Amino acid sequence: MALRRGSSLSGLAKRGLGQLHSELSSTVCAAQAEATAPLNGSFSLGGVRHASQLAVKQRMRSVQNIAKITSAMKMVAASKMRVAQTQTEKSRGMLTPFLTMLGDLPAVEVEHNLVVPVSTDKGLCGGINSTVSKYARGTLATFEGEGQQNELIVMGEKGRAQLARDRSSFIKETIADTQKVRITFSQVSAIAEELMKTEYDVVRIIFNKFQSAISFKPTIATVLSPDALEKEVEAGGKLDQYETEGPDRAEMLQDLAEFQLAVTLNNAMLENNCSEQASRMSAMESSTKNAKEMLEKLTLSYNRTRQAAITTELTEIISGAAALEG
Amino acid sequence: MLLSGSRLRHQKHGIRQEGKGLTHQEQQWSLGRMSSSAAASSYWRVAGMSYLKYANLCADMVRSSLKEPNRSKAKLREAVYYRASTWKDGKPEKQVITDLTVTAAEEKVKK
């Protein structure tokens, strides 16, 4: 009799605590959003000792490890960015004379476009690749609308994956692993020669221009083919203001056009590389922050559950003892 | 006219050996390199080289004429490595890896 009463009492106590738990868990749950969503179900059931604590602990450990990895990645990206930044700034020195001498002609009337989106090979670097793909799609759509021919040569694995989904018919060639060793001018020249195998009037290179560690501007650089450049100069370009010597002008323009392509591509790849590192740095910083926040919430819920389990056990013992006495 | 990766490698390799065992075409190129400043239409272009190839060859020559330790430092800037694949009808075709790094060249010599 006494035992039965005892058990019913403890049952009551359990139920009461169970309610308390479910209230507690619902408030904690709201705060944690989805962080512990799969785990909450288990501890709101009875509110006493069970495996959920272990699951939370495992989760805490994995979140902690992720935070460590992301913060390490941030450090790596930061140091890589510093190197890339000096390289990028140096490469601008080769590009600027071309812009002052030949100008940038994005609105030039041509028949055949070669669109070259420069993307990264590795992920986890924020939205810079989606920006490039978006601009590439926009460029294709614009010139398609004007009745011009378009072709794509995609640089980088990520851009390839994104553009192959819906623009695969435009893709003529993909180039990847350019950063595996390092970006050198010799390498860029070899790639520029790959580009020159295509019949084109104008190359449009799309990349993220590095401005600061937190700002990258999607940019489209326009490079004319030797023939198109000659037409443009004859139509009244700035080049006639310069006095030139050496080989005849057509040949010089061909040299210039080739060199301009390599220089612009070199700059685009370096700028994009720099933006990639900077973007990765801020992406990893925020993911480290998120992981730490999540860890805090998990720790809180873990401690609460543990404390609640202890309280339940104590209540059970006390009520059991009280039942025996009565 | 452009050269494939393997031809380019061969050509670079040949130049590195200071003119030893050059093919006929390469001899033509080295002739062109010497006298291009005087010619009205450059010999290297007549021989089928692009400006970029010519400029990079000149740069390679300057690099290999440097003294150590600057030379090996500059050699690092000669590295070319990329993977290209051509696409047809929305599908990628065979991949071509162009590897002209210093280690790759050394391995080739060992073989």
Describe this structure in words.
The complex is a heterodimer of chains A (326) and B (111). Chain A has 326 residues and is α/β, with parallel strands linked by helices. Chain A folds into two domains: 2-70 and 285-325; 89-284, ATP synthase, F1 complex, gamma subunit (Pyruvate Kinase, Chain: A, domain 1), CATH 3.40.1380.10. Chain A is 67% helix and 12% strand. Chain A has eight helices and five strands. Chain A has a five-stranded mixed sheet with strand order 3-2-1-4-5, sandwiched between helices. By secondary structure, chain B is of the alpha+beta class. Chain B has one domain. Chain B is built from six helices and two strands; from the N terminus they run H-H-H-H-H-E-E-H. Chain B has a two-stranded antiparallel sheet with strand order 1-2. At the A-B interface, strand 3, helix 6 and helix 8 of A face helix 4, strand 1 and strand 2 of B.
Q: What are the SSEs and their pairings?
A:
The complex is a heterodimer of chains A (326) and B (111).
Chain A: H1 2-32, H2 37-45, H3 52-102, E1 112-117, H4 128-145, E2 149-155, H5 157-166, E3 171-176, H6 185-196, E4 202-212, E5 215-224, H7 226-234, H8 249-325
Parallel strand pairs in A: 1-2, 1-4, 2-3
Antiparallel strand pairs in A: 4-5
Helix pairs in contact in A: 1-2, 1-8, 2-3, 3-8, 4-5, 6-8, 7-8
Chain B: H1 5-16, H2 24-35, H3 43-46, H4 51-64, H5 70-75, E1 81-88, E2 91-99, H6 102-110
Antiparallel strand pairs in B: 1-2
Subcellular location (chain A): Membrane
Keywords (chain A): ATP synthesis, CF(1), Hydrogen ion transport, Ion transport, Membrane, Transport
Family (chain A): Belongs to the ATPase gamma chain family.
Using brief descriptors, characterize the structure shown.
heterodimer; A: 326 residues; alpha/beta; Pyruvate Kinase, Chain: A, domain 1; 2 domains; five-stranded mixed β-sheet; 8 helices; 5 strands; B: 111 residues; alpha+beta; two-stranded antiparallel ribbon; 6 helices; 2 strands; 51% helix; flat; disordered N terminus
